[in-house]
UniProtKB/TrEMBL annotation:
Entry keyword DNA-binding: no
Family in the record: Belongs to the leucine-binding protein family.
Signal sequence range: 1-27
A Pfam family reported for this protein in Swiss-Prot or TrEMBL: Peripla_BP_6
Keyword Signal in record: yes
Superkingdom classification of source: Bacteria
Source organism per UniProt: Hydrogenophaga atypica
The name this protein goes by in its record: Branched-chain amino acid ABC transporter substrate-binding protein
Keyword entries, A-Z: Signal
PANTHER family for this protein: ABC TRANSPORTER SUBSTRATE-BINDING PROTEIN, LEUCINE-SPECIFIC-BINDING PROTEIN
Occurrences of domain Leucine-binding protein (ranges): 37-392
C-alpha cells in the first residue's frame, strides 16, 4: 500500500508540476484541481528487453494526463478532479499482469490501460470480465492502446474492453494499399513474433497477398520466439538467401530493431513493410539503406501536413527533449481525451457509467478525429502509410529520435476506408 501511494503521488506531482510550468504553452489552462485524483492503472512491461516500449507509452499517456490536468482536470458534480497514472510492471509476463490487475483493484483503481502484448490483453479481458461479474461493486473498465490481435474485438470482445489502435487486419489493409501498387515486387519474406499477434499478422498477410497480389511469391514464412532472440543474423541470412525483394513483419520493440540491424549487416537490400518500423531505434539501425525502402503504417505521423498536429508534436518534443524519447502516439492522446470526456458525460467515475459513455464517444484532438464503434468497441480513425526518407527531403520536416531520418506520408486512409466488419456478439451487463 505504501508503494501504491508513492506511485500515485509521483504521477500526480508530475501531472500537476507540468501543468504549473506549462503556462501559456497550452491553449487552455486552469487552476490545477486539488481533489483526490482519478487514478488510471497502467499495466505494462517496464523491465527486461521490451522495457523501452512501456516507457514510450508512459511518456505519451503522461503527456495526455498533464494536458487534462492543465485545463483543470475532469469536471464532476462534486468538483473537478485531476487524473493520475499509477504504473504496474508486468515484466512481459501474463501472470505478472494479472497480479498487477489484482493490486490495482485492491488499491481502488477501476480504469486500467495496457497494450504492448495481445496475449496479455486477452488475459486481462478474461480476468476483468470474470471479476466484474463476481464483484459488481468493484467493476473495472479496460482501455487498450496497442494490443491489435483482431480477435480482441471479434470473438473475444467484451463490454469492458475498448481498443484505441487499429487492429492488425486494418493495419494490413493499409499496408497492402501501397504494396499492391509496387509492380516490381515479385517475392516476399514473412517473419513475426511467435505469439497471438505475430501469428495473426502472418495469417492475414498470406490471405491479403493471395487476394490482392497473387503474383507475389512468399519465399519465407517464419515465426521466432518473442523477446528472446539476441542474434537475428541467422534469420537475416535466410532472408537474403531466399532472394526476397521485401520483408513483411509485425515485429515491434527490440525484435524489430535487431532484425533490421541484422538485415543491414548481411547486405539485404530489399524493402521492409512494417507495422512499427518508424521508431524505437529502427530508423537509426537501418540508416541510409532504408531510404525509400522502409514502409510503416500508423494512425498518425509527425510529418502529416496539418498545422494543429505539427504544433502538438513540437510541444511534445519540448516536454521530452531527449532524442530517444521521440516516439509519439496520437491514439494515446485520443484515449485519454476520450476517457476524460466520458467521465464528464457520465458525471461519474464508476466503471459501468464510463463504459456506457465510451461506447459512443467522438473525439477530436490536434486535427485528428475518431469515434468509438459501439458494436465491438473498436475505435474508427484515419490510418497513414509512410516511407522512410532523409530529414529535409520534401515532406520530411521532422526526423525520428535524432536519427536524421523521418517518414513521409504516401497514403492517407480515411476512417470510412479503414473500417472493417466485425463478428463481435457483445454481452452487455444487465
Amino acid at each position: 500500500m505504501r508503494q501504491l501511494r508513492r506511485q500515485v503521488l509521483a504521477g500526480l506531482i508530475a501531472g500537476l508540476g507540468w501543468a504549473a510550468a506549462a503556462g501559456g504553452a497550452l491553449a487552455q489552462t486552469a487552476a490545477a484541481p486539488t481533489a483526490a485524483p482519478v487514478r488510471i492503472g497502467m499495466i505494462e512491461v517496464f523491465s527486461g528487453p521490451l522495457a523501452n516500449t512501456g516507457e514510450s507509452v508512459f511518456r505519451n499517456l503522461l503527456w495526455a494526463v498533464e494536458r487534462v490536468n492543465a485545463r483543470g482536470g475532469v469536471k464532476l458534480p462534486g468538483g473537478a478532479r485531476p487524473l493520475a497514472l499509477v504504473r504496474y510492471d508486468s515484466k512481459g509476463q501474463n501472470e505478472e499482469a494479472l497480479s498487477s490487475l489484482r493490486a490495482a483493484v485492491d488499491g481502488g483503481i477501476n480504469v486500467v490501460v495496457q497494450g504492448n502484448s495481445s496475449a496479455t490483453a486477452a488475459a486481462l479481458i478474461d480476468a476483468i470480465g470474470k471479476h466484474n461479474e463476481r464483484e459488481p461493486q468493484r467493476q473495472v473498465v479496460f482501455l487498450n492502446y496497442s494490443a491489435v490481435d483482431p480477435v480482441l474485438t471479434n470473438e473475444k470482445c467484451s463490454y469492458w474492453h475498448f481498443r484505441f489502435d487499429a487492429h492488425a487486419d486494418m493495419r494490413m489493409n493499409a499496408l497492402m494499399s501501397v504494396l499492391k501498387d509496387d509492380k516490381a515486387l515479385k517475392s516476399i519474406y514473412l517473419i513475426g513474433q511467435d505469439y497471438s499477434f505475430g501469428q495473426a499478422v502472418l495469417k492475414e498477410a498470406k490471405r491479403q497477398l493471395a487476394d490482392k497480389r497473387p503474383d507475389v511469391k512468399i519465399v519465407g514464412d517464419e515465426l521466432h520466439p518473442m523477446a528472446r532472440v539476441k542474434d537475428f543474423l541467422p534469420y537475416a541470412t535466410k532472408i537474403k538467401a531466399s532472394g526476397a525483394q521485401a520483408v513483411l513483419t509485425g515485429n515491434w520493440g527490440n525484435d524489430l530493431t535487431l532484425l533490421v540491424k541484422a538485415a543491414r549487416e548481411v547486405g539485404f537490400e530489399g524493402s521492409f513493410y512494417t507495422f512499427y518500423g518508424n521508431a524505437l531505434g529502427a530508423p537509426a539501425a537501418i540508416g541510409e539503406a532504408g531510404i525509400g525502402k522502409v514502409i510503416a503504417v500508423a494512425d498518425w505521423f509527425p510529418n502529416v501536413a496539418m498545422r494543429e498536429s505539427e504544433a502538438f508534436y513540437q510541444s511534445f518534443r519540448q516536454r521530452f527533449p531527449k532524442p530517444e524519447d521521440d516516439y509519439v502516439h496520437m491514439r494515446m492522446q485520443l484515449l485519454i481525451e476520450s476517457l476524460a470526456q466520458s467521465i464528464e458525460r457520465a458525471g461519474s467515475t464508476e466503471a459501468k457509467a464510463i463504459a456506457a459513455a465510451l461506447e459512443t464517444v467522438q473525439v477530436s484532438f490536434a486535427g485528428q478525429s475518431a469515434r468509438m464503434r459501439a458494436g465491438d468497441h473498436q475505435l474508427q480513425q484515419p490510418l497513414v502509410v509512410a516511407v522512410m526518407d532523409k530529414q529535409g527531403a520534401p515532406g520530411v520536416k521532422f526526423d525520428v529520435e535524432g536519427s536524421g531520418f523521418g517518414f513521409r506520408p504516401v497514403r492517407q486512409i480515411s476512417p470510412e476506408q479503414a473500417e472493417m466488419p466485425h463478428s463481435c456478439q457483445m454481452q452487455r451487463p444487465r
